[in-house]
Specification:
With 173 residues, the chain is α+β, with helices and mostly antiparallel strands. It has one domain (4-161): Aminopeptidase. It contains 4 helices and 8 strands, in the order E-E-H-H-E-E-E-H-E-H-E-E. It has an 8-stranded mixed sheet with strand order 1-2-3-4-5-6-8-7. Helix 1 (16-24) crosses helix 2 (40-56). The longest helix is centred in the N-terminal third of the chain and has 17 residues, at 40-56. The relative contact order is 0.16. Residues 9-167 form the N-acetyltransferase domain.
Length: 173
């Protein structure tokens, strides 16, 4: 599977080798890591991906993606799907960045790229959530076009839905 490219980022589809390196904390010389990468969330996502690959096969294109800067290939976080689309065409996403690059719009840009990709693959609804006190993550989902869709005692839910799917969506937006 090819990388997804946005204006400033490359969303690199995670492979089993990539995930094993993330879990082990061992960078690939061809893909340098920003200080603080991988985060606990990246390691958890890589483990989930490896479990999925072992139990049901590689979920790509609805797997995990490493977020890299286009200018130097530096890995700064991750974004991905929690699995393939359900019977209604809905997927759930997650994302995260190392602290040193937060606040620069990278998370919203990566999420917009993933949303565009999902839409181009026939997904009709993308869902996400953030803890009530994680205002930054709520702003990321809003900036990417997702809208509040409810809440419970722990989290606020967001989603974006399309009645038609785009066949030539542009992830560089």
């Amino acid at each position: 599977m090819d990388d997804l490219v946005t204006a400033r980022l490359v969303l690199h589809p995670m492979t089993v080798d990539d995930a094993e390196r993330v879990v082990a904390g061992e960078s690939d010389s061809g893909a340098p890591w920003a200080p603080g990468y991988p985060t606990d969330g990246d390691v958890s996502a890589a483990r989930r991906y490896l479990d999925t690959c072992a139990n049901t096969g590689d979920p790509q294109p609805f797997g995990n993606y490493e977020i890299r800067l286009r200018e130097d290939g530096l890995a700064i976080g991750g974004v991905g799907f929690h699995g393939p689309a359900d019977a209604n065409g809905s997927v759930t996403i997650g994302y995260g960045l190392v602290p040193s690059v937060r606040g620069k719009g990278y998370a919203a840009e990566a999420l917009r790229g993933l949303l565009s990709f999902a839409r181009s693959r026939g997904v009709t609804c993308v869902k996400g959530d953030a803890d009530h006190d994680n205002i930054a993550s709520q702003h990321v989902m809003s900036a990417a076009g997702m809208r509040p869709a409810g809440q419970d005692e722990r989290v606020r839910y967001f989603e974006i839905a399309w009645t038609d799917t785009a066949t030539e969506a542009d992830p560089r937006s």
